[in-house]
Amino acid sequence: QISRITSACGYMIPPATSLISTGGKVTMKIYRSRCRAEKNQTQIYLTVQMFKTIILTIAILLNCTISPSFSLAEPAVPPNRQDEIALIKKYLLSVTDVNNLLQHNSSAILVDIRDEESFMRTRIPGSINIPTSFIKTKKYLTGMKVVLVDEGYRLMELLPEITRLNNNGFDVSILAGGIAAWHQSGGEFAGDRFDLERFHYIPAHYVAGLRLPLLKTWVDISPQQNNDDELNLSEIIHIPVRETRDIQKIVNSVNNNADSFSAVLIFNADGNYESVASLSELSGSTIFYLKDGLAGYKKAINQQQVMLQARSMRLKTVGGCSTCSEAQEKSK
What we know:
Blueprint: H1 2-8, H2 16-22, H3 24-63, H4 79-91, E1 92-93, H5 95-104, E2 108-112, H6 116-121, E3 122-123, E4 128-129, E5 145-149, H7 155-166, E6 171-175, H8 178-184, E7 190-191, E8 201-202, H9 204-209, E9 215-220, E10 237-238, H10 245-256, E11 263-267, H11 279-282, E12 286-290, H12 293-308, H13 311-314, H14 322-331
């Protein structure tokens, strides 16, 4: 019954010794209290996020201007972004670093911050699942070396929360390349092993909306390089894959620019990557693929641009309504 109560609010049960030592009735009361408290915290968090979204939307509608052009190439990072990148690299641990930590530090723990469904489907053995925003409520983690595990491409999004946690008594790092890097290095998994390849696909809206500083190399494997005027592909390597030996060209190019934290983005026009499926087994860098290819990327860009337009530009009246027709008749 304790398990049912705690799982209902997402609370991770501490070691069994703490349950036994306090006695059945007392323990039940403690956990029910914690569950109610965390449900209240969840409601408050969601309310705050809702107000933030409303305020941001109003600001965008009133003040936002957008550029009609866009670029797939990684944009130049402004000075303050350079500081952020340097900071997040301080928190990064490679797969080798994490394995050494788990072997030699008994207080080290892997905290998977993906959604619960993804975690239950496939996960690293021994890891626990806690959403990022709830880590600060788990005081038992303050005495542990916490390594966050995510999809591998949310670094800049996670930076503010990681910084806050480390400034408030936690010792938090993040696995560079996330669960994709763990898979590529041959790490063990629990759950559905047929789900593993999915880890290497980055949704187009992430590439379109976020800077991905650790994706150092962008490789276009299309038969012909994309020369769309709307895309600035000057910083991207073009290596068309027509036969098996072309894959080795990609591996050589990638490994020349690799370090323990770098990753590679592979893309083409339609998002079909069967011809380069073996790349993740050959490359020293973490391999990611652009989901839905350039077609999906352009669609994501267009959707973002529409969302940033003023309301009058986003809405289009097709035909009139009965009320409009009556108003027009009266005006005559």
